[in-house]
Structure formats: structure tokens, C-alpha cells
Specification:
Strand content: 5-15%
Radius of gyration: 22 Å
Shape: globular
CATH class of the largest domain: Alpha Beta
CATH topology of the largest domain: TIM Barrel
Number of helices: 14
Distance between the termini: 34 Å
Mean pLDDT: 82
Number of domains: 2
Largest sheet: 10 strands, mixed
Number of strands: 12
CATH architecture of the largest domain: Alpha-Beta Barrel
Order of helices and strands: HEEEHEHEEHHHEHEHEHHEHEHHEH
Length: about 375
């Protein structure tokens, strides 16, 4: 049954088609802008006019879905460009829906491209890294173990002080002292992402995208409760039929560097700013946590779920596919793409064969959709319509 390609094709268990692929594209202000991303050969930051032309070329190659990431002309502490109804992504959505009829337009919903500090939510100075149990004791609350027994925690190791005691979201200056003089060990200037303050902004961003015509919104921030907040916001504003593709199991791995060049979204170095996103993205060593995160997003109203990155986490893709009756996406991320490109440029591998095999393996593991910067290239290989 392996002797000829016709026989192999006859019994092949997993197929790959252009319709399985979603193409990430980066939109920037201006006209006739096509900025090459040096760490991702073949990927560009595109002004809206160029983005429409690129999407049209992808459509002709067989790509039927894109996901948009925006780079605004200005950034601020609260990421106001993310939910600007005339911002870069709403403009790109409107242009794509007009210029490439039939294209499915997904949008990334996050704050990191729009905040001046590069994090996925609003930064505050509440807890300075003090363990949850210490903060709870300092605030006269039940400890973590008691809450775990009561089933009322989501497993976060760090929390902010209750906002009811600090109506402006400001820290309780006395809390470190009440916690046993931890102010010296955990500098009060250290900031963290304020989960609950970020949720309404994510909902506003999703609504702005839906209003512009987005077919699917995809929150990638990893804030607790974001799917429920977005679902509620969409339903209340008349966009209840817009599906949510949740980045449900997004790991704080080492494969995102080239993307942050393209989206200009790396955490900024500065006093008190967390140097990475490990405080809210997942630990690469955790499997059960990934399944809990997926289950929570499904319960909150996600229509599809995603695992990110893809190939190093195909075990997670398979577990999610087996346990949940929703479409599953895998994001073949920038680092995975860049490694193939680098090896191919040196003549060490056959780029076309490796790219095809990577996408097929994602599908074999259970991914219904594969988000990949190779979407146009692979679609062209599959259809013969690439250019």
C-alpha cells in the first residue's frame, strides 16, 4: 500500500487542504507601505492598500482565511488604539471585506500591540509579586488552600488586592507592612497586569472589530474571564452571531521573538515593568492546566479554541481535540516559521517539503485549522496557484 503515490493517497488518513490554513497579516498606517520583517523572511508589515493586495494574492492561491494584527501610529498606557473604531484594524477589516469578497477575516484581540509597555493588559502597582496566600492573610481573607477546597479559585498564584478597598485601583500602601514587612523583599514599584481592569477594554476592542465587519474575533491576551466579557459585550451590542476563537492554551514559550518584531509588541524594558508574560501566559510544563483553561473558555462561550505554539505542543492539541467537541486551531508561530526559513536558506532542508509536513502534522494531531505564516506558500504548493 506504499508502493506508488496513488496507493499512498488512497489510504492516507490525514489530508491537508488550503481551506485548513489561516494567514496572519500585519497592518500598519500609511500608504504603499511594505516593510520587510527581518527575522521572518517573506513576512511584511503592510499598509491597508498593500494588505488588500496581499490578501487577494493569497485568496488566488487558495487561502480563504486571514487573521489581522495591528501596529498603531501611537501607543499609550491603556492601549486606546486597540478599541478605536477608526483604528488600524477596523480600517483594514472594512477594506478587506470590500476588496476580497468571500475572505474570512479574523482579528486578534489583545492589548500588547497598542500599549506603550508592551503587555497584554493594563499595568498597575498593586502586589509587587507577593504570593497570593500572603496577600490574602494581609487582607483578612481565607488562604489559598481554603479557597481551593471551596472550589472558588482558578489556580492563579498571584492576585491584586480587592478593588473595593482601593476604588481607583491604587495599592494599599499598608498591606506590605501588614504582610510582615515584605515591602523590602517585593519592591512596591514592581507592576503587574490588572486582569479585571483589562476585561472591558478587550470587550470594546472585539466590538469595534465586529462593528467593522470581522467574521471571527480571537482574544489572545490570556486574561481570566475575557471570553465571558467579550461574549457579553458582543451579545449586548447586536453582534451575538460573531464567533470567538479563544487562544485558550497559550504558553509563555520562547518561540514568539520574530512575531514581536513584526507586531512591535515586545515588553518594554523599564523600571517596574515585567520583563516577560509568564505571569499570565501558561507554563510550558503544564498539561492539566491547559485542559482547565480550555474548559473554562468553553464554559464562558468560546466557539473555537486554540493551542499556541503548534508543533512543540501537539500533545496538547490532541488532548484538546479528544476532550472537547469544538473546532481546534493550532498556531504555527513565528519562531517555528523562522527556524524553517533559516535552515532552508542554508540548504540544510527542503523548505517546501518541511512546510507541508509541519502543516500535515498539525492536522494529524487534531487541528481543524492551522494559523501559519506559510499559508500562502503552502496553499500554492497544494493548488499549483502560488505566485
Amino acid at each position: 500500500m506504499r508502493r506508488t503515490e496513488a496507493l499512498r493517497s488512497l489510504v492516507r488518513e490525514t489530508e491537508l487542504s488550503p481551506g485548513d490554513l489561516v494567514w496572519p497579516l500585519f497592518a500598519v498606517p500609511g500608504e504603499r507601505v511594505r516593510n520587510a520583517v527581518k527575522s521572518m523572511p517573506g513576512v511584511f508589515q503592510l499598509s491597508v492598500d498593500e494588505l488588500v493586495a496581499e490578501a487577494q494574492a493569497g485568496f488566488e492561491a487558495g487561502v480563504r482565511s486571514v487573521i489581522l494584527f495591528g501596529v498603531p501610529d501611537k501607543k499609550d498606557a491603556v492601549g486606546s488604539g486597540a478599541y478605536d473604531e477608526d483604528g488600524i484594524i477596523p480600517r483594514a477589516i472594512r477594506a478587506l471585506k470590500k476588496g476580497v469578497p468571500g475572505l474570512v477575516v479574523m482579528t486578534d484581540v489583545c492589548m500588547c500591540e497598542y500599549t506603550d509597555h508592551g503587555h497584554c493588559g493594563i499595568l498597575r502597582t498593586p502586589k509587587a509579586g507577593i504570593p497570593e496566600s500572603v496577600w490574602r492573610r494581609a487582607q483578612g481573607q481565607p488562604d489559598e488552600a481554603a479557597l481551593e477546597r471551596a472550589g472558588s479559585t482558578r489556580g492563579r498564584s498571584l492576585i491584586a488586592p480587592p478593588r473595593s478597598e482601593h476604588p481607583q485601583g491604587q495599592p494599599d500602601e499598608a498591606a506590605p507592612e501588614r504582610a510582615g514587612g515584605l515591602g523590602g523583599q517585593y519592591p512596591p514599584s514592581m507592576m503587574s497586569v490588572e486582569n479585571d481592569a483589562t476585561l472591558p477594554l478587550l470587550a470594546k476592542e472585539a466590538i469595534a472589530h465586529a462593528k467593522a465587519g470581522a467574521d471571527i474575533v480571537a482574544p489572545s491576551d490570556m486574561m481570566d474571564g475575557r471570553v465571558a466579557a467579550i461574549r457579553k459585550g458582543l451579545d449586548e451590542t447586536g453582534y451575538g452571531d460573531v464567533p470567538i476563537l479563544s487562544y485558550a492554551a497559550k504558553f509563555a514559550g520562547a518561540f514568539y521573538g520574530p512575531f514581536r518584531d513584526a507586531a512591535e509588541s515586545a515588553p518594554r524594558e523599564g523600571a517596574g515593568i515585567p520583563k516577560d508574560r509568564k505571569g499570565y501566559q501558561m507554563d510550558p510544563g503544564n498539561v492539566r492546566e491547559a485542559l482547565r483553561e480550555v474548559a473554562l473558555d468553553v464554559a464562558e462561550g468560546a466557539d473555537m479554541v486554540m493551542v499556541k505554539p503548534a508543533v512543540p505542543y501537539l500533545d496538547i492539541v490532541r488532548l484538546v481535540k479528544d476532550r472537547f467537541e469544538l473546532p481546534v486551531a493550532a498556531y504555527h508561530v513565528s519562531g517555528e516559521y523562522a527556524m524553517i526559513k533559516a535552515a532552508a536558506e542554508r540548504g540544510w532542508i527542503d523548505e517546501d517539503r518541511v512546510a507541508l509536513e509541519m502543516m500535515l502534522c498539525c492536522r494529524r494531531a487534531g487541528a481543524d485549522l492551522v494559523l501559519t505564516y506559510y499559508a500562502k506558500h503552502v496553499a500554492g504548493l497544494l493548488t499549483g496557484n502560488g505566485r
